[in-house]
Amino acid sequence: MSWEEIIKDYNPTIQRERRIWVNIPKDKVYDILQNLKNEGFEHLSSLSVTDWIDEGKFEITYHLWSYKFKVLLTVKTKIDREEAKIKSIYPIYDRSAWIHEREMHELFGIEFIGNPDLSPLFLEDWNEKPPFRKDFDWREYVRSKYYNKENEREKAYWEVWLK
Amino acid sequence: MVDMDKKVMARKMGRLIRSIWIFNWFNSCGVTELLPVVASIYDMERFGLIVVDNPKHADVLIVGGYQTEKSIKRVIRIYNQMPEPKAVMALGSCTITGGMYWDSYNTIKRLSDYIPVTIYVPGCPPRPEAVFQAVGMIFEHVNQLKKEVKGK
């Protein structure tokens, strides 16, 4: 099966020359990525997450590059915000998937089932909501953590905020 | 300034001004304008400023730019490893108020809330001239202290 046939059923759109987007349901992603890798998409250049808070979904985006076909294939999938879990692609792409998944776990709180190490990467002693989620009120958090109304030198800030 | 008796301070800091050895702690853009200080045009070695690899050899800790919640712990550890007399030079507006990261959830706002800072060098990032001026001001301050102590 060629790579075109693998993604044929999911209405791939051609963004421009050699740049293809495809939306795939959550439970099919693992198998499709496995097949795509066998067909030559061996480079996972990045894995990112978008928070569509109005829809109640997280969109996970995998960017795959093929040295054989010189094609950048963007695989997207949506998962529920409430139940943010997806099967890890660590067994397919190994360390390059591991580090991205670890970061996305930290910043968005998505659980990648099967990833061996999802320990914190940048944040230490973080007890709040994952900071890149849209419902994390970082302004409020910064004010309560770093600023103090009684502090003389921060008076100017508070004058604006309390207006 | 470090909380110390003036006399003790003058004695300790007096040793510092002959030639100062610097330990750099950079994890942000504060470094970009300090690299020319090391390079041949400004050439800090002609003033006896030498960069060392180990905080245990250093007199001055230069903290370049903003510090995150994670890196400030390392700064404190490095600061504690440095022998007396020691001074801390903080580069950039970020170390004073947080600078452009004033509302970041992960960046500390003022360095002197965490370690004693000897001198702040404002700028975004500060120019090499400002760094030299700051060094000169530390020297001047130490001389002033010595004079005051002798006058007593």
Structural summary, described in words:
The complex is a heterodimer of chains A (163) and B (152). Chain A is α/β, with parallel strands linked by helices. Chain A folds into two domains: 117 residues, NADH:ubiquinone oxidoreductase Nqo5 subunit (Beta Polymerase, domain 2), CATH 3.30.460; 31 residues, no CATH class. Chain A is 31% helix and 28% strand. Chain A is built from six helices and seven strands, in the order H-E-E-H-E-E-E-E-H-H-E-H-H. In chain A, the strands form two sheets. A five-stranded mixed sheet of chain A has the order 1-2-5-4-3. Chain A has a two-stranded parallel sheet with strand order 6-7. In chain A, strand 1 and strand 2 form a beta hairpin. The longest helix of chain A is centred in the middle third of the chain and has 14 residues. The model of chain A has no long low-confidence stretch (mean pLDDT 88). Chain B is α/β, with parallel strands linked by helices and 152 residues long. Chain B has a single domain, classed as Rossmann fold (3-Layer(aba) Sandwich), CATH 3.40.50. Chain B is built from five helices and five strands; from the N terminus they run αβαββαβαβα. Chain B has a five-stranded parallel sheet. The two termini of chain B are 21 Å apart. The model of chain B has no long low-confidence stretch (mean pLDDT 83). At the A-B interface, helix 5 of A face helix 3 of B.
Number of strands of chain B: 5
Rg value of chain A: 20 Å
- State the order of secondary-structure elements of chain A, H for helix, E for strand: HEEHEEEEHHEHH
Overall pLDDT of chain B: 83
Round the Cα radius of gyration of chain B to an integer and report it. Answer: 15 Å
CATH topology (fold) name of the largest domain in chain A: Beta Polymerase, domain 2
In CATH terms, what is the fold-level topology of chain B? Rossmann fold
Largest sheet of chain A: 5 strands, mixed
Average pLDDT taken over every residue of chain A:
88
Assess the beta-strand content of chain A as a share of residues. 25-35%
Distance between the termini of chain A: 64 Å
Largest interface: A-B, 12 and 11 residues
CATH architecture tag of chain B: 3-Layer(aba) Sandwich
**So how many helices of chain A?**
6
* Unreliable residue runs of chain B: none
Order of helices and strands of chain B: HEHEEHEHEH
CATH class value of the largest domain in chain A: Alpha Beta
Biggest sheet of chain B: strands, sense, closure?
5 strands, parallel
